[in-house]
Amino acid sequence: VSDVLDRAQALEEMERAAGVLAVRSLCSAPTNPFAGCLGCGEEIEPARRAALPSALRCLECQEALERRERGL
Ligand SMILES: [Zn+2]
Question: pTM for the full model?
Answer without folding.
Answer: 0.50
